[in-house]
Amino acid sequence: NVAKTEGRDLNADEEKEVDELQGKGDQVGKIGELEAKLERLQKIEAAQKAIARSRFAAAAGDEPVLDGELNISAVKVPAKAKTAAVRAYTGPNADKEAYIAGQWFLALNGNENANAWLKSHGVQNAMSTSDNTKGGYLVPEVLESAIIRNVEQFGVARREARVYPMGPGVTLIPRRSSGFTGYFAGENSSVTASDLAFDQVRLEARKLMVFSSWSSELPEDSVVALGDLLTAEVAQCFAVKEDQCLFIGDGTSTYGGIVGLANALAAGAVHTTASNVDTPAEITLASFEDAMGKLLVIPGLQPKWYCHSSIYYNVMQRLAFASTGNTAANFNAGFGPTFMGYPVVFCQAMDSGAPTTDLSGKFIAYFGDMSRSVTMGQKRGISIAVDNSYGFNTDSVYFRATERFDINCHERGTATAGGTIIGVKCNAS
């Protein structure tokens, strides 16, 4: 980053340091050594979990689980632990999954009973809970899957973009940038050659962190509610930031260096409203029609509208109700989240406003297929760590949840032509 900022190549000392970290030739490098160590620790923990789960299944009178997965149906949730209905977990085992997550948070908090329960059920072993400053080496499967599921529910980015698993370091995905060009051939004349061109979508893992605290005096009787609450809160925080990166990211540290749609689309992929049309009340149907006309239509494309809920109700639904043929019945029923025949996806990270709000220079909507336009890289799962010492003077426990991802808005159109997603932008005048 320093070399890039200064507009120069790496010097000899910097090249040596990079080689030591990343490796050179047949040398592994420090990063490779750490990744190999992590893989060994994960294998050890997986084996320890499998042994504990087999013992738990035998004690519960069930057949051993061959793949080492926990038999959740055999988990017993004490009646006193059920203090409220869970929301972050769904399905027939929702209470049990929230109970497992709550026990894990309690164990990270230094609760020996919770730690013993986890070890006996094969959910977590002493490797990651014996030292509370290093707690959370691995997150239980039920907790991690619930956080990811809730991120998809709360946010748009992970649900609508194409999610691609990332390997070590930078991940490069081949992308077709242009095809062959056909020419009419005259008699005895040569034909201009053309090439099928490819470039690469670059994904570089960026760490997103949630840092907060809770009281050290967590009651064991509320373990289900604890697991449910923290799962939902971490997921919602991740979802909000991912959506902000996708829609309004400007490449600064606020968005982890990610450039979102508002700053990525080329001029040909943007429709700007007419002069002085910069409030929701002034926007006409023509702006949306022009955006639809700019869309690059390719086989399999499934376009949707993306906007803040206030834009939908103050602009799209207003225009729909203003059209002829409406009756009291369909006025009361509403049109649902659709507009001009296409689904509408609400994203609260986008710009919003009342009918008279000045939205000069702001993107109010996008139209296109997000799965064909944006790739989201997922480096690894969720990691949660806890430290008892940081809040010693307030008797608080601090926890840190992290994920590593990247978002690349690669179908940006050109200066004169749109791509697979088009932005509708209010005039800046």
**Structural class of the secondary structure composition?**
alpha+beta
Shape: globular
Determine the mean pLDDT.
82
- In sequence order, what are the helices and strands, one letter per element? HHHHHHHEEEEHHEHEHHEEEHEEEE
- Rg over CA atoms, rounded to whole Å, is 26 Å
Uncertain spans, ≥5 residues at pLDDT below 50?
64-68, 125-137
- Spatial sequence of strands, sheet with the most strands: 5-13-9-6-8-7
Percent of residues in β-strands = 15-25%
Topology:
Layout (H helix, E strand, L loop, with lengths): L1 H4 L6 H11 L6 H31 L34 H15 L3 H10 L19 H14 L2 H4 L1 E4 L4 E9 L18 E8 L1 E10 L7 H26 L12 H4 L5 E3 L12 H10 L9 E4 L1 H14 L5 H6 L4 E2 L2 E5 L16 E6 L1 H4 E5 L4 E5 L8 E14 L11 E5 L4
Parallel strand pairs: 1-10, 5-13, 6-8
Antiparallel strand pairs: 2-3, 4-12, 6-9, 7-8, 9-13, 10-12, 11-12
